[in-house]
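Design a sequence for this backbone.
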């Protein structure tokens, strides 16, 4: 049975999973679940992922959520090239380190700004809430980018090594979404160079980012 993928193309973790599938020609069927339409919280979608979050997959009846977990599962179940999630235990631990770091650092900051600048006005958050989210988001992003910039001063890839890993894909998808929230990595030259590198090495980068790129372009009009 073909693998079922539940995503919204605007979502960072969704695009990371989609890129891994597309770059490796893994057959899959996309089911779009609109975040803005509230479809992640529908009873039908919660049958697929009870947490009400995307991405999610169903692989021959096996249901799985959480983008990092899905990516690791795909690496193992589809025997993907070793560089994505290395079998060397120490290199693998480095990839896991950055995937874990992502949740409470880069993504934490990015989500604060997205909530403040996108969801705040739509969902009528108070000005105080928006200001607090912005302040925290700015601070967390600044320290996250400084930390990444330092790591990338001695390596072309976030987890070290000399090839792309799933940590690069997950983090790069987060960084490339930041213009939606009015932020960017342009003050961090190593992060910027790394983002350019990842965007050329991931073959499906532009295809997977097309909806988000259109959204960003429409915001500038
Ligand atoms: N840690 C999760 C985060 C998933 C997540 O936050 N997904 C968002 C889209 S980017 C979502 O489903 N939001 C819908 C909602 O909360 O209703 C992962 O990496 O998969």
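Sequence:
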């Amino acid at each position: 049975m073909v693998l079922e993928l539940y995503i919204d193309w605007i979502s960072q973790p969704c695009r990371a999973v989609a890129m891994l599938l597309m770059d490796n020609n893994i057959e899959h069927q996309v089911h779009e679940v609109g975040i803005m339409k509230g479809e992640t919280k529908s009873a039908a979608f919660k049958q697929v992922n009870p947490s009400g979050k995307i991405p999610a997959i169903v692989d021959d009846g096996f249901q799985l959520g959480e983008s990092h977990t899905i990516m690791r599962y795909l690496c193992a179940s589809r025997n993907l090239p070793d560089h994505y999630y290395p079998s060397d235990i120490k290199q693998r631990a480095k990839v896991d380190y950055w995937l874990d770091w992502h949740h409470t650092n880069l993504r934490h900051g990015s989500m604060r700004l997205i909530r403040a600048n996108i969801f705040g006005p739509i969902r009528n958050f108070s000005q105080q809430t928006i200001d607090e989210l912005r302040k925290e988001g700015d601070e967390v992003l600044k320290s996250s980018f400084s930390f990444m910039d330092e790591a990338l001063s001695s390596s072309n890839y976030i987890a070290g090594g000399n090839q792309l890993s799933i940590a690069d894909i997950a983090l790069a998808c987060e960084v490339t979404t930041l213009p939606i929230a009015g932020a960017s990595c342009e003050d961090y030259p190593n992060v910027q160079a790394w983002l350019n590198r990842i965007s050329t090495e991931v073959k499906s980068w532009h295809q997977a980012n097309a909806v988000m790129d259109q959204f960003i372009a429409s915001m500038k009009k």
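Strands lie at 3-7, 28-32, 56-59, 62-65.
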